[in-house]
Amino acid sequence: METxxxxxxxxxxxxxxxxxxxxxxxxxLAAKKLDISQSQVSRSxxxxxxxxxxxxxxxxxxxxxxxPLANNLSKIVPTILDSISSVKTTNLNFDPTSYSGEIxxxxxxxxxxxxxxNLSEVISTQSPNAKLNFLTWDEKTLxxxxxxxxxxxxxxxxxxxxxxxxxERIQKDRFYLFARNEHPIFNKIEYTLKxxxxxxxxxxxxxxxxxxxxxxxxxVKTLGYELKVKHRSDNIELLKKIVLNTNSxxxxxxxFIEQDCNxxxxxxxxxEEYSKYFEGDRVYTSVFFQQSNRKSDKIINxxxxxx
Length: 307
What we know:
- This protein has three domains: 5-89, Arc Repressor Mutant, subunit A (Orthogonal Bundle), CATH 1.10.10.10; 102-172 and 283-306, 3-Layer(aba) Sandwich (D-Maltodextrin-Binding Protein, domain 2); 175-278, Periplasmic binding protein-like II (D-Maltodextrin-Binding Protein, domain 2).
- 39% of the residues lie in helices and 21% in strands.
- The chain is built from eleven helices and twelve strands.
- It has helices at 12-24, 27-34, 38-52, 68-89, 114-126, 141-146, 193-197, 215-222, 236-245, 272-278, 294-306, and strands spanning 57-60, 63-66, 102-107, 131-136, 152-156, 165-172, 175-180, 200-204, 228-233, 249-253, 264-266, 284-290.
- The strands form three sheets. It has a five-stranded mixed beta sheet with strand order 4-3-5-12-6. The protein has a five-stranded mixed beta sheet with strand order 9-8-10-7-11, with helices on one face.
- Helix 5 links the parallel strand 3 and strand 4 (131-136).
- GO terms for molecular function: DNA binding; DNA-binding transcription factor activity.
């Protein structure tokens, strides 16, 4: 006999626990984050399994893997929680100067350099007693911001966001071609596009933008050339090291060489079509936040002002 799901109603707390487990893929970490017992997490997941007649999560070597139903559920739960949260927190006065809890910031790897340090200075000025957690932006960052598991995200504005997440553009950036100072191409008095594309390339993987395929391949193809991608990585330091020790050319924004400007320089060549593609709104340095999150809401303006 089929169980009547109405006898196992789902409350908001169960959904909140589900969302944190979905992000962490670990019941122990979820319990720690929520400051509850692991058994309470397990009971909540069991309620969901019974209600939906679905496993929800399947154990794997990498932790808990969500089922297709859980993936679909994760897309709507943040909206449900935000609707309730916005009502509950509208009149709360969050004082950043006295806050002593955690503030979690997820950054795309390209911002994990001087930018991250400067950001920590800005936030520490606003909230001197807060504990800052710096994380790497990945495919779970946006759901984590939606559920207030992460307070602030930093990435380029090409990222497509759900309706409950807002972004503020801080600073415009663009893409360049970089090579080491001793690169043979700089021995030429003049160099052409053909000269540039004769070399191997390093391309950074930016989550949500070119995860599956370097978009630059298609762009360069429209110019009549082939882009020979030798290395792809989301590890910026690895790409820099390759460029410094080989004749590979790097496609990246100005953020890529903030700390290596004396060893790597721009290949000064006019690629009008290439530049047009990358110079739109897609490459604004931006902060992402859940507007009902009182912590981020009070700090964002200071980040924007500091640029």
